[in-house]
Amino acid sequence: MESRHLFTFLEVVEAGSFTRAAQKLDYAQSSITAQIQALEQELGQPLFDRIGKKIVLTDAGRRLLPYARQIMRMHSMAEEDLRAHSAVSGLLRIGAPESLAAFRLPGIISEYRSKFPQVEIILKPGSCWELREMSRSGEMDLSFLLQEEFSDKDLHVETLIHEEMALVAPVGHRLSNGIQVSPDDLRNETILHTETGCSYRLLFERYLNASGVYPDPKLEFWSIEAIKQCVMAGLGLSLLPLVTVRKELEEGRLARLLWDDSTHRVATQMAFHHKKWRSPALEAFLETTRKHAGLWRQDKISV
User: Fold this and answer.
1) Roughly what angle, to the nearest 10 degrees, separates helices 3-15 and 29-43?
2) Which of 52, 96, 199, 263 has the fewest CB atoms within 10 Å, counting from its CB?
3) What is the pTM assigned to this prediction?
4) Are residues 171 and 189 in the same domain?
């Protein structure tokens, strides 16, 4: 049963004649007649008695009338609801590791919320492998990842910036003398690590191990802020994304050691399922992110 046939049926009932309904809808009268006949044929019974120039609803027509009105009301409600939500609104589920959630996303979210306050954002923390899986399953609308650059057959992956890494130490540490630090220099140092499975931790450990260096003891933390505080307190050294320690380096509360990070740099990437519908809300967030990423790449950190 086509909705346009029901709409025409209601217009004929309201107008009281095929001619007046055709004039109101700006249709040819033959088109109105054809639509009513198609509806009658589908239902298997006449809807109008045509007596002279008058039309009168049959018993079937009277029974159909309330259902037709209800169907058209629901049709209008559905159109209005979808039209309203075609604007930038709704819910975005975004995943990110703690380092990006704390040091890359606040500026993006702040600008986005100022432009699109109707959008609800749920920010979920997680490791990169967890976030990749949630993006593949559709649990996340968008995931931010901090890891070696990768591609995935199920995901659209976009690299935003290659993150510079910083080996940081307490101010006045014996290695903070401006001389290039080698893996062997770290042999007897305590390394403060992020959680097991962290991409840049794995790259750093692999690099040290390849040189026969296995720092011990190791301390493991889930919080970058905790690591920074412990380094400042003299508990050890740590390799962290430069963006996460920039403020402390500029303020002289941490020392950056001269360290070649080229073999264990990671990339900040965003990923979402390539079959996912890009809602207006998601498209706007992607564009806001790309804008900020352009500014990150222009920002030359000198500390």
Assistant:
1) 120
2) 52
3) 0.68
4) yes
Cα(203)–Cα(163) distance, integer angstroms: 13
Distance CA 104, CA 107 (A): 7
Tell me whether residue 303 is in a domain. no
Which position has the token pair 């014996």?
A: 174
Strand runs (DSSP E) across the chain, as ranges?
48-51, 54-57, 90-96, 119-125, 142-147, 155-163, 165-169, 191-193, 218-220, 238-241, 255-256, 266-273
Return the amino acid letter for 122. Answer: I
Domain boundary among 38, 53, 85: 85
**Structural domain boundaries, residue 197:** 165-264
What pLDDT, in 10s, does the model give residues 170-225? Answer: 999 999 988 999 999 999 899 998 876 688 888 888 899 999 998 766 678 888 99
Query: Average pLDDT for residues 232-260, to the nearest whole number?
Result: 94
Would you call the peptide bond into 66 cis, given omega within 30 degrees of 0 as the criterion?
no
Q: Are strands 119-125 and 155-163 parallel, antiparallel or unpaired?
A: unpaired
